Amino acid sequence: GEDVEQSLFLSVREGDSSVINCTYTDSSSTYLYWYKQEPGAGLQLLTYIFSNMDMKQDQRLTVLLNKKDKHLSLRIADTQTGDSAIYFCAESMNQKVTFGTGTKLQVIP
Amino acid sequence: ETGVTQTPRHLVMGMTNKKSLKCEQHLGHNAMYWYKQSAKKPLELMFVYNFKEQTENNSVPSRFSPECPNSSHLFLHLHTLQPEDSALYLCASSQEEGPNRPLHFGNGTRLTVT
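Output (structure tokens, whole complex):
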């Protein structure tokens, strides 16, 4: 079955880069997503990558996909206090989306 | 209004009460979803509706009863809940067609069962 794993917590200093990692099990995944959840809010789509791509960059965000190792990462450059949130990795196959447990990012001023 | 709107934001109910959660989307999407978010657990998909038809029921207990009267509205009717049902209930919508279906979420209803 599908399984998506993430570490639960990451702490970085303001201005540093953050790297959030995710592993997944379903090699048939077509799209992989990163969502952000701020306190008291729902999940907000940050970015996504198609499974035939290795990298996608969108302003401060860089997504790297290693399909062989089934490893996905999200790099946030110049991390700001407003980036403090829970980040969810998700994989999509057909109509089903499977989420990880989320990584709580704490940004220290 | 834009996006996905959920009401109420917070709900406290006793185990014998009956209540309903409401979700409305203004994105022109054809698929709507209910998810349950509990602490330190992955999001749990509960129900999926495509064009008002239920296409997935992820072994959800019958004390949760969904209703989708049209593609823009989704309800979750609750009755005789248990304390372990306390969680954040998230509604989402997406386009039905195509392999890339990013989900658009509402802000959720924080449910507490006493």
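Residues 30 and 94 of chain A are 8 Å apart (CA to CA).
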